Amino acid sequence: MPALLKKTLASSSSLYDYDTLAIEPAMRVELEARASLIFDLGRRTTEQTFELGDHLAAAAELLADRKFDGWVKKRCGLAVRSARNYVAVFRNLTPYRDDLVDLSVGSTALFHLSSATPEQITEAITFATEHGRLQVSDVKSILANGDRGEGKAADDHFSNGGITGLKALIALKVRDGLKAFIAHIEAIYQVIGAALAKKRVIKEALAKDIIDLARIARQELESLALFVEPEIVTGPSPRSTTFPTTSEWARVNDTLLTLGSIETWPKVGEMRGWLEAQVLPVLGWAISNERKPVAPAGRVAVEAPTVFAESAPADEATVFDPALGSMELEAEGPTEASTGAIVIAEDGPEARRRLASVPTLAPEELDERLPDISPAPAVMV
User: Fold this and answer.
1) DSSP letter string over 28-88?
2) What is the pLDDT of residues 329-342, one digit of tens each?
């Protein structure tokens, strides 16, 4: 430690009489160590604001209120009010520390935010993410909206126009939509956990409890995280974009898709292993409070169900793939479009066999026979 700082500490220590106040030696050592760390912090960055609050909170646990106030003022050179603000930041905002540090929120704004509700804190973080800053006036505005009541605040959001009004609506959707998504995933997680706690997993009973929740959660996820793009194959009908196939959020989306249809679930004997090893880890990752949760091992294999045209006989079935939004004939062998012959593998279930030869259609005949398969407009939640 530099000689000048040692001299400063010694001088400050003499201003606070540990002996007269009957503070035992072990506690005095701890307090002196905290005081040294407070002096070493120097400039108050967001991270240092939390560290200072940590040291002051530890000292507050050792001292009664009056002794703490005197120690802070005389030993650390801090105003009592400021010290209590730092303690409040550490105690109330630590669960959001990583986000607030990444956003470089100033200490004064943190002081005001430390009295906010969890919903208001989340709203403030969303605001800072969108605007690149969070000032004291922004925090006061968020706190004032909360004091007016949720219903009135929501009405005010829908009354404001322009880009500012739109941003407010987006922030409202992100805040409330995120809470709803998390609540639905937590509900699914708890239901599955309760089913696994029993000796035997009843597939039908579990499906009854979580299928609807999984479908809703999947729509909420896509509404919160994905954009809208035109459907290239069938025309300018809008549809949601998709997550990159190798991303963990694609895995979450696929898991919810699978949970939303009992037909895609494993056999009864494989249910427990599937739920424990694949489903619960993926859902837990999706709503983890960790800054960078570790992705679970393994991937959930999801195969989109194949839907057959009702009008075609079993040996001439044309396949409609909902994921592609187009009609196609399944084939394993090469096609001969010029002669109208399509070579198809004959093995497999009866319902999947195809004609070995299909006559070529004239363009006008093709237009008449193909059904209108334009997908319905995407519903945004």
Assistant:
1) HHHHHHHHHHHHHH-S--HHHHHHHHHHHHHHHHHS-HHHHHHHHHHHS---HHHHHHHHH
2) 343 444 333 333 33
Alpha-carbon distance values, 227 to 165, 240, 242, 243, 378 (Å): 20, 6, 8, 10, 11
Closest CA to 212 of 189, 188, 245: 188
The two most distant CA atoms of the chain are separated, in Å, by: 106
CA distance 168 to 297: 38
Q: What tens digit of pLDDT does each residue of 206-256 get?
A: 999 999 999 999 999 999 999 988 876 666 678 889 999 999 999 999 999
Instruction: Decide if 169 contacts 158 (C-beta within 8 A).
Output: yes
Determine the distance from the C-alpha atom of residue 268 to the mean position of all C-alpha atoms in its chain, rounded to a whole number. Answer: 31
Q: Which helix (H) or strand (E) holds 334?
A: none
- Which amino acid, residue 102? D
Q: What gap in Å lies between CA 126 and CA 170, rounded to an integer?
A: 10
| DSSP track, 252-317 | HHHHHHHHT-GGGS--GGGHHHHIIIIIHHHHHHHT--SSSPPPPSS-----PPPEE-TTS-GGGP
Q: How far apart are CA 20 and CA 36, in angstroms?
A: 22
Question: Could you say which DSSP state residue 118 is in?
Answer: H
HSE at residue 111, side-chain half, CA atoms within 13 A, is 13
Structure pTM?
0.45
